[in-house]
Every structure is written in structure tokens, then in C-alpha cells.
């Protein structure tokens, strides 16, 4: 039976993608209500050929809705409880509730069963975490992961539509001998890399780096896994890439790893170095899957692997994962009728 869905933050980059993914995956939407701040109210968006006007979010936006998809920011703190009180299941893409022990943190390919114990709110993990754990899970199941060393190459759209505007405006200005001061990023991002995403925290790691550690532990139900991350912003429009070094308990050959990953849900292996085939952000954007290539044994340790993992962070890293969680709620009969 059809499900009434509210999207909060509908007019932003993730909001647009949520609408698109609901349509593409043919989610059984009954009524779709698009909500945002007063600044974006009145904008018109389209869903399945229908024009829908964005309204300002109020507690009553959730009356009669069964699922509320929150695109990000502080809105879920402000309106999440009101949505839950009105019988909605909240799927929240912000970091507000991710580490709350009362809130499941779900990647459907990894821990789908966790949606079943929700108490009204389900959190969608951080984009770089989602992309990594989809690739880690089948390896963990097959060989047990002891330790992960990850370095990310994160696209500017991870910082929203303004990140894209800054990269394109700055690139154009610099190529033409002009200037374009940094705004969204701490330094010039055109023709540069910035090893700094989100704020610095404990031990001089950034919040983005801690998210990759703590969220992975929660999603994988294994806080003994050693994880260390360096997260870097790169001048790419869309799709995050990650160099992932893995130490396993049981030795896996590159060939075994390739087979395991190729059979795993949500993964496409692109790994034929002789034919110059490996995943790249340019070719992984607008796709729902996580792409893995450059699969190699790391023979500096008894059982080590290197992977290159790429995923569209607005799709699988945000909107697609959220819609997949909604699909699980339908499948498990977790929604109020
Ligand atoms: C980024 N991970 O790429 C963030 C977005 N949530 O900036």
C-alpha cells in the first residue's frame, strides 16, 4: 500500500536527489510533501511529472505522513520529535543522532536488521563511511577485519551546492588570471587539495575522520576493529574516492577478494589494470552502487589488501541509502498504516 512521505530540506542537493531516487526506484509513494526553511518555501519541484510546491516545515507538516526523510542540518533536532509524535518514522541524514545508542545507524547492505529496533528515528551514516562499509562488510564476513587505514578524496559537493559553485567559479577565475577568495572551504580548492573536512577534534583528527571510525564500529557491530582515517577535499565535483588498506585475520588473495566483492550486494567491481579499468569519480556519479577496483594483496603484512573504492556521495552516500532504509521499513512492515 502507498506510503506518504515528507522530505525536509527538499530544495538542497540531497533533497533533490531524494526526490529523484524515490521516483527512479519506484518507491510506493502515496502523497509526497516537500518541506524546507521559509527561505525555500514556494519553490516548485517535480516528481513523476507532477509539480510540487515546497512548503515551510512546521510540526504539522508530518500529519498524515508515514516516513520523514531529513536531508541534513539541524532540522531533525528541531522537527524530528514532532514527526515521530505524529507517527512518522524519521530517516535522518544529519549527524545529530548517529551515535545515539537508541538510534539505529543503517546501511542496508551491511546491517539491515537494525531498522527493526528503531524507536522512531533511524540515522543515515556519513557519506564516506557508507561508501567504505559497503566494501568492508563482505571482506569482514569472509576473513575478519583487524585494521583499516583509509584516506579519502572527497568531492566538493559533499559540502553542498555551494561547494560546486566555489570550485567552478574559482577554477574559471584563476584560469583567467583573476581571483576568487575561499568561502565554503578554508583555502582555495581549485588546483589544490585540503586535508581538512569539518572541524578539528580529539588528537587533531577532524570530525569527518572520527565519523569514519565511530560510525563504522556501530554499523559493523564491532568496536574492536582498528580504523584510522585521513580525509581530504579534492577539486572534483561529485563522488568520493577512498584508498583503503585492510588487515584481515584470514589471508585472502586478490582473486578471492575480487570474487567476494563481485558477489556482494551494492558493489560493482571494476578491476582490469591491463585494460586501464578502475573506478573514477567521473564515471561513478549518478550511480547507486559502490565501485571497487585496484584490488591488490598488501604483502608488507601476512594478510593485507589494498582497495580503491568510489561512490556517489549524494546517491549511495546520502539519498539512495535513505530510500533503501525506507524500502526496508516497507519490507519489514515497520510503518504505521
Ligand atoms: C563532506 N562528509 O563530504 C561530508 C558531507 N556529509 O563534506
From TrEMBL:
InterPro entries the record matches: Asp_semialdehyde_DH, Asp_semialdehyde_DH_beta, NAD(P)-bd_dom_sf, Semialdehyde_DH_NAD-bd, Semialdhyde_DH_dimer_dom
Organism whose genome encodes this protein: Desulfocucumis palustris
Pfam families linked to this entry: Semialdhyde_dh, Semialdhyde_dhC
Name of the featured protein: Aspartate-semialdehyde dehydrogenase
Sequence positions that bind NADP(+): 11-14, 39-40, 157-158, 182, 313
Record-linked PANTHER family: ASPARTATE-SEMIALDEHYDE DEHYDROGENASE (PTHR46278:SF2), DEHYDROGENASE, PUTATIVE-RELATED (PTHR46278)
Subunit relationships: Homodimer.
GO biological process, one term: threonine biosynthetic process
Amino acid at each position: 500500500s502507498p506510503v506518504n512521505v515528507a522530505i525536509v530540506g527538499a530544495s538542497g542537493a540531497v533533497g533533490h536527489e531524494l526526490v529523484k531516487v524515490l521516483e527512479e526506484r519506484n518507491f510506493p509513494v502515496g502523497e509526497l510533501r516537500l518541506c524546507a526553511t521559509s527561505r525555500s518555501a514556494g519553490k516548485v519541484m517535480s516528481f513523476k511529472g507532477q509539480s510540487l510546491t515546497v512548503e515551510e516545515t512546521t510540526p504539522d507538516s508530518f500529519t498524515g505522513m508515514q516516513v520523514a526523510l531529513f536531508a541534513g542540518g539541524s532540522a531533525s533536532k528541531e522537527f524530528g520529535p514532532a514527526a515521530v509524535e505524529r507517527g512518522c518514522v524519521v530517516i535522518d541524514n544529519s549527524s545529530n543522532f548517529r551515535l545515539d545508542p537508541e538510534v539505529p545507524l543503517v546501511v542496508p547492505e551491511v546491517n539491515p536488521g537494525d531498522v527493526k529496533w528503531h524507536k522512531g528515528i533511524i540515522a543515515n551514516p556519513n557519506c564516506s563511511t557508507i561508501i567504505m562499509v559497503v566494501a568492508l562488510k563482505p571482506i569482514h564476513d569472509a576473513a575478519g577485519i583487524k585494521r583499516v587505514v583509509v584516506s579519502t578524496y572527497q568531492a566538493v559537493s559533499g559540502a553542498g551546492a555551494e561547494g560546486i559553485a566555489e570550485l567552478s567559479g574559482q577554477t574559471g577565475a584563476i584560469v583567467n588570471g583573476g581571483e576568487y577568495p575561499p568561502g565554503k572551504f578554508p583555502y582555495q580548492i581549485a588546483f589544490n587539495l585540503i586535508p581538512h573536512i569539518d572541524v578539528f577534534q580529539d588528537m587533531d583528527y577532524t570530525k569527518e575522520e572520527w565519523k569514519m571510525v565511530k560510525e563504522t564500529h556501530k554499523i559493523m557491530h564491532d568496536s574492536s576493529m582498528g580504523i584510522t582515517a585521513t580525509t581530504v577535499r579534492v577539486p572534483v565535483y561529485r563522488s568520493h574516492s577512498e584508498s583503503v588498506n585492510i588487515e584481515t585475520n584470514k589471508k585472502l588473495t586478490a582473486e578471492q577478494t575480487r570474487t567476494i566483492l563481485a558477489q556482494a550486494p551494492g558493489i560493482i567491481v571494476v578491476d582490469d589494470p591491463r585494460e586501464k579499468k578502475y573506478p573514477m569519480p567521473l564515471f561513478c556519479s549518478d550511480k547507486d552502487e559502490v565501485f571497487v577496483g585496484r584490488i591488490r594483496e598488501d604483502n608488507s603484512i601476512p594478510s593485507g589488501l589494498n582497495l580503491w573504492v568510489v561512490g556517489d556521495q549524494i546517491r549511495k552516500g546520502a539519498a539512495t541509502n535513505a530510500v533503501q532504509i525506507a524500502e526496508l521499513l516497507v519490507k519489514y512492515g515497520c510503518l504505521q498504516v
